[in-house]
Amino acid sequence: MRKRLIWRNRRPFQNAVVFTSPMCGTVMLILGAPPTVAVAMPEPIRIGWQLGLIIAGLIGIAGLLWPGRYATGLGLELASMLMLGAVTSMYAITLGVGGGLAAVTSVSFTTAVAFGSWWRGGELLHDLHRLVEPQRPAPDLAGEFP
Amino acid sequence: MTAPTPPPPPPPPPPSTDAAAAAPQWLQVVLSVVGVLGGAGGFATIAAVVVKRGKFRAEAADVLTDTALTLVQPMRIRMAELEAEAQTIREQLRASNERSHRLQASITQLRTMLDRWYALIFAPEASLPAIRSTIREDRRRIQTSGEVRAEPTGDR
User: Fold this and answer.
1) Distance (Å) from the C-alpha of residue A88 to the closest C-alpha of chain B?
2) What SS3 string covers chain B?
3) What is the pLDDT of residue B16?
Protein backbone atom coordinates (compact mmCIF):
# COMPACT_ATOMS: atom_id res chain seq x y z
CA MET A 1 0.00 0.00 0.00
CA ARG A 2 1.64 3.21 -1.17
CA LYS A 3 -0.65 5.63 0.59
CA ARG A 4 1.39 7.90 2.73
CA LEU A 5 0.18 10.53 5.08
CA ILE A 6 1.96 13.82 5.21
CA TRP A 7 3.33 14.24 8.64
CA ARG A 8 5.72 16.77 9.94
CA ASN A 9 8.56 16.63 12.38
CA ARG A 10 8.74 12.90 12.86
CA ARG A 11 12.37 12.59 11.78
CA PRO A 12 14.80 12.48 14.65
CA PHE A 13 17.90 12.26 12.47
CA GLN A 14 16.83 15.19 10.41
CA ASN A 15 15.96 17.15 13.52
CA ALA A 16 19.34 16.46 15.04
CA VAL A 17 21.22 17.45 11.91
CA VAL A 18 19.14 20.56 11.39
CA PHE A 19 19.68 21.65 14.97
CA THR A 20 23.38 20.88 14.86
CA SER A 21 24.28 22.56 11.60
CA PRO A 22 23.83 26.21 12.63
CA MET A 23 25.86 25.62 15.77
CA CYS A 24 28.61 24.03 13.72
CA GLY A 25 28.55 26.87 11.22
CA THR A 26 28.63 29.52 13.92
CA VAL A 27 31.53 27.91 15.71
CA MET A 28 33.49 27.63 12.48
CA LEU A 29 32.68 31.20 11.52
CA ILE A 30 33.94 32.46 14.85
CA LEU A 31 36.88 30.19 15.55
CA GLY A 32 38.04 29.53 12.00
CA ALA A 33 37.68 26.60 9.65
CA PRO A 34 39.41 23.22 10.04
CA PRO A 35 42.53 22.77 7.88
CA THR A 36 40.90 20.42 5.37
CA VAL A 37 38.28 22.96 4.49
CA ALA A 38 40.70 25.87 4.59
CA VAL A 39 42.99 24.12 2.15
CA ALA A 40 40.35 22.94 -0.29
CA MET A 41 38.07 25.93 -0.41
CA PRO A 42 39.08 29.46 -1.23
CA GLU A 43 37.94 32.19 1.09
CA PRO A 44 34.63 33.25 -0.55
CA ILE A 45 33.43 29.71 -1.03
CA ARG A 46 34.32 28.89 2.53
CA ILE A 47 32.46 31.86 3.94
CA GLY A 48 29.49 31.04 1.76
CA TRP A 49 29.65 27.45 2.89
CA GLN A 50 29.61 28.38 6.57
CA LEU A 51 26.82 30.87 6.06
CA GLY A 52 24.92 28.22 4.13
CA LEU A 53 25.33 25.83 7.02
CA ILE A 54 23.90 28.39 9.42
CA ILE A 55 21.09 29.53 7.13
CA ALA A 56 20.06 26.01 6.17
CA GLY A 57 19.89 25.03 9.83
CA LEU A 58 17.90 28.08 10.83
CA ILE A 59 15.47 27.69 7.96
CA GLY A 60 15.12 24.03 8.78
CA ILE A 61 14.31 24.80 12.40
CA ALA A 62 11.82 27.41 11.26
CA GLY A 63 10.22 24.94 8.88
CA LEU A 64 9.99 22.21 11.46
CA LEU A 65 8.49 24.48 14.09
CA TRP A 66 6.38 26.58 11.72
CA PRO A 67 3.15 27.39 13.57
CA GLY A 68 1.10 28.56 10.62
CA ARG A 69 0.09 26.92 7.41
CA TYR A 70 1.29 23.42 6.84
CA ALA A 71 2.46 23.99 3.27
CA THR A 72 4.66 26.90 4.30
CA GLY A 73 6.43 24.81 6.88
CA LEU A 74 6.95 22.04 4.34
CA GLY A 75 8.32 24.54 1.82
CA LEU A 76 10.77 25.97 4.33
CA GLU A 77 11.84 22.47 5.20
CA LEU A 78 12.37 21.74 1.52
CA ALA A 79 14.55 24.83 1.13
CA SER A 80 16.54 23.83 4.17
CA MET A 81 17.00 20.31 2.89
CA LEU A 82 18.21 21.50 -0.50
CA MET A 83 20.72 23.85 1.05
CA LEU A 84 21.83 21.34 3.64
CA GLY A 85 22.25 18.69 0.98
CA ALA A 86 24.41 21.01 -1.07
CA VAL A 87 26.48 22.09 1.92
CA THR A 88 27.09 18.58 3.21
CA SER A 89 27.83 17.37 -0.31
CA MET A 90 30.47 20.05 -0.61
CA TYR A 91 32.00 19.00 2.65
CA ALA A 92 31.89 15.33 1.71
CA ILE A 93 33.61 16.02 -1.60
CA THR A 94 36.24 18.13 0.11
CA LEU A 95 36.93 15.49 2.71
CA GLY A 96 36.95 12.67 0.20
CA VAL A 97 39.41 14.37 -2.09
CA GLY A 98 41.68 15.74 0.59
CA GLY A 99 41.52 13.13 3.29
CA GLY A 100 42.02 9.86 1.48
CA LEU A 101 41.80 6.72 3.53
CA ALA A 102 42.04 8.55 6.83
CA ALA A 103 38.68 10.22 6.27
CA VAL A 104 36.59 7.17 5.47
CA THR A 105 34.42 7.47 8.56
CA SER A 106 33.77 11.16 8.29
CA VAL A 107 33.20 10.93 4.55
CA SER A 108 30.73 8.11 5.06
CA PHE A 109 28.67 9.90 7.65
CA THR A 110 28.79 13.21 5.88
CA THR A 111 27.71 11.51 2.68
CA ALA A 112 24.91 9.85 4.60
CA VAL A 113 23.70 13.24 5.81
CA ALA A 114 23.90 14.64 2.30
CA PHE A 115 22.05 11.68 0.86
CA GLY A 116 19.39 11.89 3.56
CA SER A 117 18.93 15.56 2.86
CA TRP A 118 18.40 14.99 -0.83
CA TRP A 119 16.07 12.13 -0.06
CA ARG A 120 13.97 14.17 2.30
CA GLY A 121 14.00 16.98 -0.24
CA GLY A 122 12.54 14.66 -2.83
CA GLU A 123 9.87 13.52 -0.42
CA LEU A 124 8.95 17.08 0.42
CA LEU A 125 8.79 17.95 -3.26
CA HIS A 126 6.37 15.10 -3.81
CA ASP A 127 4.23 16.08 -0.84
CA LEU A 128 4.09 19.69 -1.94
CA HIS A 129 3.05 18.60 -5.40
CA ARG A 130 0.21 16.70 -3.83
CA LEU A 131 -0.77 19.76 -1.86
CA VAL A 132 -0.80 21.96 -4.96
CA GLU A 133 -2.61 19.61 -7.30
CA PRO A 134 -6.30 20.39 -7.76
CA GLN A 135 -8.65 19.18 -5.11
CA ARG A 136 -10.44 15.97 -5.91
CA PRO A 137 -12.61 15.20 -2.92
CA ALA A 138 -13.59 11.81 -4.30
CA PRO A 139 -16.03 13.04 -6.96
CA ASP A 140 -17.98 9.80 -7.21
CA LEU A 141 -18.77 10.04 -3.54
CA ALA A 142 -20.13 13.55 -3.73
CA GLY A 143 -23.52 13.78 -2.06
CA GLU A 144 -23.42 10.24 -0.86
CA PHE A 145 -22.71 11.24 2.70
CA PRO A 146 -25.53 11.82 5.12
CA MET B 1 44.05 1.81 -12.46
CA THR B 2 46.73 -0.02 -10.53
CA ALA B 3 49.73 2.14 -9.93
CA PRO B 4 52.53 0.03 -8.49
CA THR B 5 54.30 2.83 -6.69
CA PRO B 6 56.56 1.75 -3.86
CA PRO B 7 57.26 5.30 -2.54
CA PRO B 8 55.83 6.17 0.87
CA PRO B 9 52.91 8.49 -0.12
CA PRO B 10 50.22 5.82 -0.49
CA PRO B 11 47.00 7.64 -1.49
CA PRO B 12 45.89 5.71 -4.57
CA PRO B 13 42.73 7.61 -5.64
CA PRO B 14 44.25 10.91 -6.83
CA PRO B 15 46.67 10.74 -9.74
CA SER B 16 50.15 11.13 -8.44
CA THR B 17 52.17 14.19 -9.31
CA ASP B 18 50.64 17.23 -10.90
CA ALA B 19 47.17 16.32 -9.59
CA ALA B 20 48.13 18.01 -6.33
CA ALA B 21 48.10 21.27 -8.21
CA ALA B 22 45.25 20.38 -10.55
CA ALA B 23 42.85 18.81 -8.06
CA PRO B 24 41.95 21.97 -6.14
CA GLN B 25 41.07 23.59 -9.45
CA TRP B 26 38.34 21.18 -10.44
CA LEU B 27 37.48 20.66 -6.80
CA GLN B 28 36.76 24.34 -6.49
CA VAL B 29 34.65 24.24 -9.60
CA VAL B 30 32.69 21.27 -8.34
CA LEU B 31 32.22 22.84 -4.93
CA SER B 32 31.14 26.11 -6.43
CA VAL B 33 28.66 24.42 -8.72
CA VAL B 34 27.19 22.32 -5.93
CA GLY B 35 27.04 25.25 -3.56
CA VAL B 36 25.50 27.59 -6.09
CA LEU B 37 22.95 24.98 -7.14
CA GLY B 38 21.99 24.18 -3.56
CA GLY B 39 21.81 27.78 -2.47
CA ALA B 40 19.86 28.80 -5.54
CA GLY B 41 17.48 25.89 -5.07
CA GLY B 42 16.95 26.76 -1.44
CA PHE B 43 16.32 30.43 -2.04
CA ALA B 44 14.14 29.66 -5.03
CA THR B 45 12.09 27.37 -2.84
CA ILE B 46 11.70 30.04 -0.20
CA ALA B 47 10.72 32.56 -2.86
CA ALA B 48 8.22 30.11 -4.32
CA VAL B 49 6.70 29.46 -0.90
CA VAL B 50 6.40 33.18 -0.22
CA VAL B 51 4.98 34.00 -3.64
CA LYS B 52 2.62 31.07 -4.07
CA ARG B 53 1.25 31.28 -0.59
CA GLY B 54 -2.30 31.42 -1.84
CA LYS B 55 -1.88 28.47 -4.12
CA PHE B 56 -1.41 26.13 -1.22
CA ARG B 57 -5.03 26.41 -0.27
CA ALA B 58 -5.26 22.73 0.34
CA GLU B 59 -4.25 22.13 3.88
CA ALA B 60 -2.79 18.84 4.86
CA ALA B 61 -6.01 18.01 6.68
CA ASP B 62 -7.77 17.99 3.34
CA VAL B 63 -5.21 15.62 1.98
CA LEU B 64 -5.73 13.40 4.97
CA THR B 65 -9.46 13.44 4.47
CA ASP B 66 -8.98 12.69 0.83
CA THR B 67 -6.82 9.72 1.64
CA ALA B 68 -9.35 8.48 4.15
CA LEU B 69 -12.11 8.75 1.57
CA THR B 70 -10.04 6.82 -0.89
CA LEU B 71 -9.61 4.10 1.66
CA VAL B 72 -13.28 4.04 2.56
CA GLN B 73 -14.59 4.02 -0.98
CA PRO B 74 -14.14 0.30 -1.73
CA MET B 75 -15.96 -0.51 1.47
CA ARG B 76 -18.76 1.79 0.43
CA ILE B 77 -19.13 0.04 -2.90
CA ARG B 78 -19.11 -3.34 -1.22
CA MET B 79 -21.74 -2.16 1.22
CA ALA B 80 -24.01 -1.01 -1.61
CA GLU B 81 -23.66 -4.40 -3.25
CA LEU B 82 -24.51 -6.19 -0.06
CA GLU B 83 -27.51 -3.98 0.52
CA ALA B 84 -28.87 -4.71 -2.95
CA GLU B 85 -28.33 -8.40 -2.37
CA ALA B 86 -30.12 -8.26 0.96
CA GLN B 87 -33.00 -6.44 -0.70
CA THR B 88 -33.51 -9.15 -3.32
CA ILE B 89 -33.27 -11.86 -0.72
CA ARG B 90 -35.84 -10.13 1.44
CA GLU B 91 -38.11 -9.94 -1.58
CA GLN B 92 -37.74 -13.64 -2.24
CA LEU B 93 -38.41 -14.44 1.39
CA ARG B 94 -41.58 -12.41 1.37
CA ALA B 95 -42.82 -14.12 -1.82
CA SER B 96 -42.14 -17.57 -0.47
CA ASN B 97 -43.84 -16.75 2.83
CA GLU B 98 -46.91 -15.62 0.98
CA ARG B 99 -46.92 -18.77 -1.08
CA SER B 100 -46.66 -20.96 1.95
CA HIS B 101 -49.60 -19.16 3.56
CA ARG B 102 -51.69 -19.70 0.49
CA LEU B 103 -50.80 -23.35 0.44
CA GLN B 104 -51.73 -23.73 4.08
CA ALA B 105 -55.06 -22.06 3.49
CA SER B 106 -55.88 -24.37 0.61
CA ILE B 107 -54.91 -27.39 2.69
CA THR B 108 -57.28 -26.28 5.43
CA GLN B 109 -60.03 -25.81 2.92
CA LEU B 110 -59.51 -29.25 1.43
CA ARG B 111 -59.47 -30.80 4.90
CA THR B 112 -62.77 -29.27 5.85
CA MET B 113 -64.22 -30.49 2.59
CA LEU B 114 -62.96 -33.99 3.30
CA ASP B 115 -64.52 -33.92 6.78
CA ARG B 116 -67.79 -32.76 5.31
CA TRP B 117 -67.80 -35.60 2.77
CA TYR B 118 -66.98 -38.09 5.49
CA ALA B 119 -69.86 -36.88 7.57
CA LEU B 120 -72.08 -36.96 4.53
CA ILE B 121 -71.15 -40.50 3.66
CA PHE B 122 -71.56 -41.87 7.15
CA ALA B 123 -74.77 -40.04 7.92
CA PRO B 124 -77.59 -42.44 8.80
CA GLU B 125 -79.90 -41.13 6.11
CA ALA B 126 -77.20 -41.02 3.42
CA SER B 127 -78.35 -41.64 -0.10
CA LEU B 128 -76.32 -41.94 -3.23
CA PRO B 129 -78.02 -39.11 -5.18
CA ALA B 130 -77.70 -36.70 -2.27
CA ILE B 131 -74.01 -37.50 -1.86
CA ARG B 132 -73.44 -37.15 -5.60
CA SER B 133 -75.16 -33.82 -5.81
CA THR B 134 -73.23 -32.42 -2.82
CA ILE B 135 -69.91 -33.62 -4.21
CA ARG B 136 -70.67 -32.22 -7.62
CA GLU B 137 -71.53 -28.88 -6.08
CA ASP B 138 -68.34 -28.83 -4.03
CA ARG B 139 -66.30 -29.67 -7.04
CA ARG B 140 -67.89 -26.94 -9.10
CA ARG B 141 -67.18 -24.44 -6.34
CA ILE B 142 -63.54 -25.44 -6.18
CA GLN B 143 -63.13 -25.21 -9.92
CA THR B 144 -64.68 -21.76 -10.10
CA SER B 145 -62.59 -20.41 -7.28
CA GLY B 146 -59.53 -21.96 -8.91
CA GLU B 147 -57.60 -21.52 -5.75
CA VAL B 148 -56.41 -25.04 -5.28
CA ARG B 149 -55.71 -25.60 -8.95
CA ALA B 150 -53.53 -22.52 -9.31
CA GLU B 151 -51.22 -23.29 -6.44
CA PRO B 152 -48.71 -25.77 -7.84
CA THR B 153 -47.66 -23.37 -10.58
CA GLY B 154 -46.19 -20.89 -8.12
CA ASP B 155 -42.81 -19.38 -8.89
CA ARG B 156 -39.69 -21.37 -8.23
Assistant:
1) 10
2) CCCCCCCCCCCCCCCCCCHHHHHHHHHHHHHHHHHHHHHHHHHHHHHHHHHHHHHCCCCHHHHHHHHHHHHHHHHHHHHHHHHHHHHHHHHHHHHHHHHHHHHHHHHHHHHHHHHHHHHHHCCCCCCHHHHHHHHHHHHHHHHHHCHHHHHHHCCC
3) 40
Nearest by CB to residue A131, choosing from B14, B46, B60, is: B60
pLDDT at B89 > cutoff 90: yes
d(CA B52, CA B32): 29
More confident site: A35 or A144: A35
A91 with B31: CB under 8 angstroms?
A: no
pLDDT, tens digit (0-9, with 9 covering 90-100), for B105-132 = 999 988 998 898 888 888 888 888 888 8
Q: How far is CA B22 from CA A41, B19, B27, B97, in A?
A: 14, 5, 9, 97
Kindly list the domain boundaries of chain A, sorted by start residue. 12-132
Closest chain A residue to B39, measured at CA: A83
Which residue of chain B comes nearest to A130, CA vs CA? B63
Question: Which residues of chain A have a CB within 8 Å of the CB of B37?
Answer: 86
ipTM above 0.85, yes or no: no
CB neighbourhood size of A143 (10 A): 5
| Burial class of residue A55 in the structure, from the number of CB atoms within 10 Å of its CB (0-12 exposed, 13-18 middle, 19+ buried) | buried
CA distance B28 to A92: 13
Contact B45 A140 (CB under 8 A): no
